[in-house]
Amino acid sequence: MANVQYYDVILKPVVTEKSMGQMAEKKYTFLVHPEANKTMIKEAVEKMFDGVKVAKVNTMNNDGKTRRRGMTSGKTAKTKKAIVQLTADSKDIEIFAGL
Questions:
Q1: Of 76 and 4, more confident
Q2: pLDDT (tens digit, 9 = 90+) per residue, 55-91?
Q3: Is 25 left (phi over 0), alpha (psi -120 to 50) or beta?
Q4: Domain 6-88 in CATH 3.30.70.260
Q5: Cβ neighbours of residue 17 under 8 Å, at least 6 residues apart?
Q6: Where are the alpha helices (DSSP H) in 1-99?
Q7: Distance, first Cα to last Cα, the chain
Q8: Which of 87, 86, 80, 64 is nearest to 8 (CA)?
Q9: What's the rounded mean pLDDT across residues 37-46?
Q10: Any signal peptide, and if so, which residues (predicted)?
């Protein structure tokens, strides 16, 4: 596996209607590096955001979609998504505060 640092693990937050609804339960959704595991994701979230404690991490691997351009077909890049559950006494993540 490549040398993935904690600031390379989290790529961007996922902003959908479902993910915004889960924020009331202190669940936050991020797109993460495809080779990152759950412990790497937990450490990255706790280092990037002050006062945040992670209770658990759920991950999903999404394969790339098949796309065609004429007779040529190919696949888009595969992605990995992580849903991070914070502890009850943890602070909220500020990125999602203004949305």
A1: 76
A2: 999 999 999 999 999 999 999 999 999 999 999 999 9
A3: alpha
A4: no
A5: none
A6: 6-9, 17-22, 38-48
A7: 35
A8: 80
A9: 95
A10: none
Percent composition of the chain: helix, strand, coil (DSSP 3-state, to 5): 25, 35, 35
Q: Where are the domains of the chain?
A: 6-88
Q: Cβ distance 9 to 33 under 8 Å?
A: yes
**How is residue 45 written in tokens?**
């979230």
Angle at 92 between CA 3 and CA 85, to 5 degrees: 60
The first and second tokens of residue 20, run together, are 């915004």
Inform me whether the pLDDT recorded for 52 exceeds 90: yes
Pairing of the two strands 66-69 and 54-62: unpaired
Has residue 3 got a pLDDT over 90? Answer: no
